[in-house]
Design goal:
This protein has 312 residues and is of the alpha+beta class. The chain is 43% helix and 16% strand. The chain is flat, with a radius of gyration of 27 Å.
Length: 312
């Protein structure tokens, strides 16, 4: 550490300044401060009870909601005998229920690309849990067997740090997705055209990372040596973490408890917001087009990605 980085010994720490100030107070004022500290102690004890009871309430109502969510899932997926139709030609349950609910919310919808929808059609349930150790919450995404990946459940956990005002995100942890060959939606296969006059005219191919909802399960990570991060990189990382948390919290607080209202459109706030969403999607489409240079073209695999849900 250089001399410039070392603290000035003449500058006292805040705790030392406060202690010095309290010591200088008249005795009668010190007694009043002691009384105030007793009041603060009583307040903190009540606050601790409030936090404990709040955790118990969260657990209580999480358990009360659970049977309703199970009934919802049985209807959506036609897993009960009453909901299953004998006619094989007729559809059972509510096809694309969760895809429709996710796309109706503006915060989540911007994360979903056209390529993602083929895979998200196989999403059959989303569950949310508050967890106490480590403190935070967990999301579980349940999928039917599909042509994209072998996982039946994809999870996302948010670990929070306690703070005086509100919990602070420490880190997020996602599931490693086991993609089937040629079905990884987090990359695109690009073909690079050979330069004019080149002896080798065979197009070269490479994989390029791309935007997809499934990046949600590979959240940004904080490097071990935070002090070595460039300020601009640190700010960008902070923005990415906040965006990731917003999506997770939206799914927890809005999509899971009110999925039916999002699917039917009742939860959509206004037509103006829906119009803004369309403008944002158009801008994203233009950005994606700009990413492909004149020397590169996207490998045509869109028809493979547009999977339809098999009739049961």
């Amino acid at each position: 550490m250089s001399n410039a980085d070392q603290p000035d010994p003449a500058v006292k720490a805040p705790s030392a300044r406060v202690a010095e100030h309290l010591a200088s107070l008249p005795e009668d004022v010190k007694q009043r401060v002691n009384s105030l500290q007793e009041i603060q102690k009583e307040h903190d004890e009540i606050e601790a009870k409030f936090k404990k009871e709040r955790e118990e309430l969260i657990t209580k109502y999480q358990n009360l909601y659970a049977p309703l969510y199970e009934k919802r899932a049985s209807i959506v997926n036609a897993s009960s005998a009453e909901e299953t139709k004998p006619d094989e030609a007729a559809s059972n349950g509510v096809p694309e229920f969760w895809l429709g609910a996710l796309k109706a919310n503006e915060i989540v919808a911007v994360q979903i690309t056209e390529r993602d929808q083929g895979a998200l059609k196989y999403l059959k349930d989303i569950k949310s849990y508050y967890v106490s150790s480590p403190k935070g919450f967990k999301l579980e995404f349940y999928f039917d067997e599909n042509p994209y990946f072998t996982n039946s459940v994809l999870t996302k956990e948010y670990h929070m740090e306690e703070d005086d005002d509100e919990p602070i995100l420490e880190r997020a942890v996602g599931t490693k997705i086991d993609w089937k060959p040629g079905k990884d939606l987090t990359v695109k296969l690009m073909k690079k055209k050979p330069k004019k006059g080149a002896k080798d005219t065979t197009p070269q191919t490479k994989l390029q990372a791309c935007e997809t909802f499934f990046n949600f399960f590979n959240p940004p990570e904080i490097p071990e040596n935070e002090e070595e991060i460039d300020p601009e990189e640190a700010e960008e990382l902070q923005d990415l973490m906040e965006q990731d948390y917003d999506v997770g919290a939206t799914i927890r607080d809005k999509i899971v408890p009110h999925a039916v209202s999002w699917f039917t459109g009742e939860a959509v706030e206004s037509d103006d917001e829906a119009g803004d969403d369309e403008d944002d999607e158009d801008e994203e489409d233009e950005d994606e087009d700009d990413e492909v240079t004149d020397d590169e073209e996207e490998f045509d695999a869109k028809e493979e990605a547009k999977q339809t849900v098999p009739k049961e």
